[in-house]
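Support request, priority: normal
Reporter: lab tech (M.K.)
Component: structure prediction queue

Hi team, I submitted a job for Hydantoinase/oxoprolinase family protein from Nonomuraea terrae yesterday, and the status page still shows it as pending. I've pasted the exact input below so you can check whether something in the sequence is tripping the parser. The sequence length should be 666 residues. Please let me know if I need to resubmit or if it's stuck on your end.
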Amino acid sequence: MRSVRIGVDTGGTFTDVVAVDEETGEILTTKTPSTPADPADGFLAGIDKLGRLDVGSIVHGTTVATNRLLEDRIGDLGFITTEGFEFILEIARQSVPDGYGNSYFWVKPPRIVPVHLVKTVGGRLDHRGNEVRPFNEEQAVEVARWFRAKGITAIGVCFLHSYANPTHEHRMREVLWREHPEAVISLSSDVLREYREYERSVTTLVDAAVKPVMRGYIASLSHRLGRPFSVMKSNGGILSAREVVNQPITTVLSGPAAGALGAALIASTAGHKSVITLDGGGTSTDVAVVADGEPSVTTEGSVGRYPCKIPMIDIVTVGAGGGSVAWISPEGTLKVGPRSAGADPGPLCYGRGGTEVTVTDAHVFLGRIPPHLLGGEIPLDADAARTGIQGLADKLGLTPERTATGILEISAFNQSNAIRQLTVQRGLDVRDFPLVTFGGSGPLLACRLIDILGLPSVLVPRDPGNVSAFGLLTVDVKNDYVRTYVTRDLSPGTAAEIFHDLEHQAGETLQREGFDDPVYQRSADLRYYGQAYEVRVPAPAGEIDEEWRAEVVARFHDAHEKLYGYAYRDDPRHAVEWVNLRVSGIGPINRPVIRRLDKPGAGATSVRPVHFDETRDTPIHQRAALGPGATVRGPAVIEEYGSTIPIHPGFIAKVDEYGNVEIARD
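Reply from support: The job had stalled in the queue. We restarted it manually and it finished. Here are the results:
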């Protein structure tokens, strides 16, 4: 029996599974419908579909934490902060979201914790961690008992300047353990030891909010699986399930992060080092930028409306998936998303009780996807899709074809706007980047995105519906640690002491994961004195001395000039300020090798009516039958087990030596 490593990515609509043979490198893939009521059911069903295998290890990408936040399903949550700072969440930041001209037209959304569930405790530290006022134990006991009486068990603790000295937060945790044993606690000094109290507070509260459901899910899955497994993190690394339950916030966007990493490896192997990745699923579309083979990383990310300053792959998510619902606004205009029909009940064509038209129904009506999914496992009800589209068309006063095409056009523009956020708005020319599109619904709008954005080409990998699951098998074990130390004169001795402490923390965790010889990556956040935000640059390994310090500062000047077009290298009036020192602890793994496609497989070409600019009989190609060098001119449709690629008139698709389909203007 062959030994395999398995990656399982649980999405909103489908659970994707990839197994890699550790000896031969052979890749097996399958998909199964997700089970939102209990994601573990879909997880185990997907593994069972692979058959009897000797499983060496399992890596899981989960949306349990992400969906909890995106859907605002946050139960009663308590917040404990420093006396006098009970309105941190209300004050927040002055910035107004895009799309609002000014604050007069923007109403702040409800806080993650309402005011009546915020309690304060006396005690104060300064920004260096020195105690100004002692911790008030009596108040702490009173607060703990108050939350116990109210039945609030998920509690976040964030005291002022606890990034510099966590002592007061540790004492608060001890009080909660003693007075309120049922409480699930998140400390800001554990979650994010970095300054800016608003972002640290919200990040800590998000961790506390998802901790109960993640602990329950991981425990249930571990019990049913009967073996240990690892979980994908937002930073592009993995960690064992037993460790990740202590900081579940690190798993938000874990599936999209795996997709970006898997797509980066596939594109790099095919000769494209810098690309845009687009992961189109049933519920949402996730977009990332890959530069020189590595997805960009940020600590300014968010999930839904909640800022999360943990390191994560820089991903923009929009509610534009196959299950996105088409609806009519009060003004009478057609809208698509962000609400999704999900896996249950799903689109109308699923025949599971869905009542609203979705993007998938529009594709079915136009003939662009086959009358079944997953090679026949999921038959589609084309009549139900047609009836729904007709009803929506009658309300809009349009033909059914115009209505269905309009739904897809709006979805394409929603996706293109996400791509612009990561490129045009950050000074990148989208026309310089090929697009790697994957996920079950990702390739469906490839030709329209080329037209809308002026993309040079679109690359669709083999088994595009399973790229995120494949990405889970390409990543190292990774943990991130940060320490805020704001100064314009960082001495090498102080820097060495902080980095040594951070590397020691990383090493302890990696040793528990079985890595005796970990790799450490240093970085630092710097800014010009007087600026509000920092630029992160890599810091050299090795001895920390004056030469090391000068090298980091030089890298900061270069990075600042690349980002903003100017730098103050030789201007003593603009001092450089150090803000955060960071360490990533990495346990390297053996990555699977992407093999060349030797020859085409079996599969006959057929014909069916498909509507692009008009309805006509259109060639339907089976992707397995397309070998290296094969060319398909539009109009045409390329079908496979987990996805479909419509080739519009005026476009051409070519198969490269690795089996990727590259689409461009003909």
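The two ends are 47 Å apart (CA to CA). The first strand starts at residue 3 and ends at 10. Let us know if anything else looks off. Ticket resolved.
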